[in-house]
Amino acid sequence: MLRVTMGSVEQRDEEQEDEGEEELRDGGVPFYVNRGGLPVDEETWERMWRHVARIHPNGEALGKEIRVASDLPKIPIPSVPTYQPTNTIPQRLEAIQKYIRELQYNHTGTQFFEIKKSRPLTALMDIAKEMMREALPIKCLEAVILGIYLTNNMPGVERFPLSFQSQFSGNNFHHIVLGVHIGGRFGALGISRREDLMFKPLEFRTLMDLVQEFEGAYRGYWHTLRKVRIGQYVSHDPHSVEQIEWKHSILDVDKLTKEELRKELERHTRDMRLKIGKPAPPSPTKDRRNSMGSPLRGPSSPIRRISRVERRPSGEKKVLEQKSATDMNGYQIRV
Fold first, then answer.
1. Strand 32-33 to 110-111 pairing
2. How far is it, in rounded angstroms, from Cα 290 to Cα 111?
3. Which residues are catalytically annotated?
4. Which stretches does UniProt call biased (Acidic residues) (predicted)?
5. Which residues pair with 185 in a beta bridge?
């Protein structure tokens, strides 16, 4: 029974991370995601305030005070970073991190933008545009999507998801940042409650050095780093229908020696370099792009599957071509 229970807890952790939840628990209660889009519907809005009332020391009184106030200060909207031709890549990355930080970390316990990791890149980039338009506080996974969008016009900068699973007082916590790599140096963009668990300048010579930097930060908060998940480089094409490969390598840090961890990270670095030379699948045409992978697309919308005819060897195709028109009456090719 204990083995089954532990297995189900680990599976639930994986499912929650795949759905984009930063932690298994936030403030001791489940972490919510706004799945109804914006503007926030009444049910989600009330649930958020009930959640605030539970997790804040003066939550109920504070919530009432804010909701009835008529003279709340206007929150400034951060300006999307712009660059001069003379700005270096490190300066541009720092400007992006400054913008992400100015959006502020979302402490409400309700993530405002639903990030489904299975969506194609073009759909996630649409969500990034919505995040900039709404200028609401964000959590770590939203910051990763935003970081990808804002670095798409930097072809020399390679980006990859870098996520961590840590443990403290028997509870598992998940966090993710956007790793960046250029000119033999690694760094990271992101957002967190903790200053040293997000932005890292481009000064780490290896992926091992970057991971160890985050591991040291976790130790400073009495967290034990259990797992590191590293994805592949993300396409720079904002209209790509590729899915982000979030977990190309999953490393059990507590089960690997330092040398074994180094070798695994070096292997992953080689894998990422190999992907650079591989051509990406073509982007959809303008007409198809509007209907493919949109965040507003209904959950029941059919997903195109490759026809079996398209996968057949050329010899079998010739057999099909010889069939009479009568035999083909009931046969349709899906496009």
1. parallel
2. 26
3. 140, 175, 192
4. 12-24
5. 182
Return all residues near 312 (Cβ < 8 A) that are at least 6 apart. 320
Number of domains in the chain: 2
| Together in a domain, 158 and 40 | no
Contacts of 124 (CB under 8 A, 6+ apart): 115, 145, 148, 244
> 250-283: string of b/e by CB count within 10 Å (b at 16+)?
ebebeeeeeeebbebbeebbeebeebeeeeeeeb
Residue 246 lies inside a defined structural domain of this protein: yes
At 57-78, the pLDDT tens digits run: 887 888 888 889 988 888 889 9
Residues in contact with 144: Cβ distance below 8 Å, sequence separation at least 6, in sequence order: 161, 176, 177, 178, 189, 190
One domain, residues 152 and 270 = yes
DSSP bridge partners of 234: none
Q: What number of other Cβ atoms are within 10 A of residue 75's Cβ?
A: 10
In whole angstroms, what is the distance from residue 38 CA to residue 132 CA? 13
Q: Which domain range does residue 61 map to?
A: 22-69
Rounded to two decimals, what is the model's pTM? 0.76
Nearest 5 degrees, angle CA 227-CA 167-CA 139? 80
Task: Give yes or no for residue 159 having a pLDDT over 60.
Answer: yes
The candidate with the shortest Cα–Cα distance to 295, out of 153, 29, 113, is 113
How far, in Å, are 31, 45, 67 from residue 34 at the CA level?
10, 9, 19
